[in-house]
């Protein structure tokens, strides 16, 4: 397997070409609906943070086509000689979960510094019961390092990941970096609290759709 090149942030034509097709497939197979797209800033660095219940979740968010998103994905995907190159062509990059992956964090901060959009799942893994769970500190750590705003997004389905069941992707209001309450030399507790604030907003959006269906 060819190692991922962290030396520069790249965007691939495959992403732009395939998104319209994936959007059509999403509408046909998952009856996907995007709500609140007007809340997504047109320009500038942004972290899109959502809950995670199924493998197609990145595609569900990306097919909104509001911005070009670079998703962080577990390194195991990139170690697969078939799947890895596909993920790379869709602007994803690997991260070693459960460790301070310096390369991945620096890459994420760099792409935000270039005014791009980073996609993250704050929980760090898929929810097996479909309910949003506690966020890891990673999303807040990267927001702090890049001084980036965060856009909470919820993905809701009664049957996560199963075709022919409606999927609603709901974009919330941007959380300005300053609202996360993290000081440059602040304690770790501030980072944990910021991660909680982000996840709470995601959960509120998710609960809104659960009550509707």
Write the layout of secondary structure elements.
Elements: H1 13-30, E1 33-35, E2 46-50, H2 57-62, E3 69-74, H3 75-78, H4 83-89, E4 93-95, H5 102-113, E5 117-120, H6 138-146, E6 149-156, E7 168-171, H7 188-212
Parallel strand pairs: 1-7, 2-5, 2-6, 3-4, 3-5
Antiparallel strand pairs: 6-7
Helix pairs in contact: 5-6, 6-7
Top CATH class: Alpha Beta
Radius of gyration: 16 Å
**Assembly state (oligomeric):** single chain
By CATH, the architecture is named 3-Layer(aba) Sandwich
Keyword list:
alpha/beta, 7 helices, 213 residues, Glycerol-3-phosphate (1)-acyltransferase, 7 strands, globular, seven-stranded mixed sheet
What does this structure look like?
By secondary structure, the protein is of the alpha/beta class. The protein has a single domain (13-212), classed as 3-Layer(aba) Sandwich (Glycerol-3-phosphate (1)-acyltransferase), CATH 3.40.1130.10. It has helices at residues 13-30, 57-62, 75-78, 83-89, 102-113, 138-146, 188-212, and strands spanning 33-35, 46-50, 69-74, 93-95, 117-120, 149-156, 168-171. The chain has a 7-stranded mixed beta sheet with strand order 1-7-6-2-5-3-4. Helix 5 crosses helix 6. The protein is globular and about 50 Å long. The mean pLDDT is 94.
Brief description of this entry?
The chain is α/β, with parallel strands linked by helices and 213 residues long. Strands 1-7-6-2-5-3-4 form a 7-stranded mixed beta sheet. 38% of the residues lie in helices and 15% in strands.
């Amino acid at each position: 397997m060819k190692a991922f090149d962290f030396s520069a942030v790249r965007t691939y034509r495959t992403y732009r070409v395939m998104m319209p097709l994936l959007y059509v497939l999403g509408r046909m197979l998952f009856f996907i609906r995007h709500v609140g797209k007007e809340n997504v800033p047109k320009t500038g660095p942004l972290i899109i943070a959502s809950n995670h219940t199924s493998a197609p979740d990145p595609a569900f968010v990306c097919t909104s086509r509001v911005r070009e998103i670079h998703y962080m994905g577990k390194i195991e995907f990139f170690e697969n000689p078939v799947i890895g190159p596909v993920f790379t062509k869709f602007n994803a990059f690997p991260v070693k979960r459960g460790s301070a992956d310096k390369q991945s964090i620096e890459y994420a901060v760099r792409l935000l510094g270039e005014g791009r959009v980073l996609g993250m799942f704050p929980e760090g893994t898929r929810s097996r019961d479909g309910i949003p769970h506690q966020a890891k500190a990673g999303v807040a750590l990267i927001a702090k390092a890049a001084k980036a705003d965060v856009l909470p997004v919820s993905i809701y389905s009664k049957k996560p990941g199963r075709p022919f069941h409606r999927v609603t992707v709901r974009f919330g209001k941007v959380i300005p970096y300053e609202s996360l309450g993290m000081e440059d030399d602040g304690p770790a507790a501030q980072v944990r609290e910021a991660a909680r604030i982000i996840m709470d907003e995601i959960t509120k959006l998710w609960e809104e759709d659960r009550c509707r269906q």
